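Case study 2.
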Amino acid sequence: MGTLEKENENLLYIRSRSKGEIKMERLAIVVPCYNEEEVFENTAERLTERLSALVQKNKISPDSYILFVDDGSTDNTWQLMMAEYKKNYRVQVLGLAGNAGQQNALLAGFACVVNQCEIAVSLDADLQDDLGVLEKMIDKRHQGADVVYGVRNDRRSDTVFKRVSAHMFYLLMKMLGTKTVSHHAEYRLMSSEVLRELMRYDERNIFVRGIIPLMGFRSEVVYYARKHRTAGRSKYSLGKMISTAFEAITSFSIRPLSMIMLMGAAIALCALVGLVVLIVCTVCGMPISEGKYILASVWLLGGMQLTATGVVGEYAGRTYFETKRRPRYRVRQLLRHDEDSRDSYKIQEADTNGRQP
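Prediction:
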């Protein structure tokens, strides 16, 4: 069965970008999970069905697979992953020792697949990102794109607060001069060349969706409407949203430091003008309540000093963590299917269904 599978695989082709030659590409779907027991089984089933459909359409290699990354879940997510791994030859699982955060969980998954695939797609476990555009992503890859971003053009499924905060975040990132794709989260396709380049970025304070546009690879965009979550609650709390935004700002821009300097200069200028006005008024004999001006000035300058000190402290603190060079995550367990076990699963599925997957 393994030999036959390989012979069939050699008959499936995609268009090469350089010479017009034909080449097979293996897809890895990387899915970070944190306490997703309520949606995991549905997610695994739908992703497996999508992979099988793409294989049958000759879009991807038959040995394409899904890598679920457990980001230190405290519920039964890991147990469900293990059960799915044992019965589904398209599933691989990676368990992290403790909660490393979404960005680090993604990087751990990318590190595991970078030498095992030609293209990789990352997405959230809740499947609010439309799987229907996955085929469009692959088609754009066939046309020569190295990165294909999934961009939300309809966020009606989000709360009003989340929609407003998202708009403000992308506007702020644009003002700070950071290259980001508006309304794009973690749903993207990347070639193995992009993955290898991403692995060279070794900073601890990392923001993946800001780094990838910075690389300069050829990119395309597909649009989709964000869906409602099928079950459970989002694990992306307000605190995590604020933390991600701050990481993005401090990772890619020093403009806040420049803004503080400009605000300090503006305040000093206003103080100088106010002093001149006070002197003129005093000379002209006009009554001036100096205490009010002094009190307002003290509060204003004190607040600005605290703000400036806090921002500078954040940059200094993040530099401190970078110099420590601590590992971003620790792998607890990685489970992959070898060729023999994959062929065994395929034979069993063929006997059960009367056809090859």
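The chain has twelve helices and ten strands.
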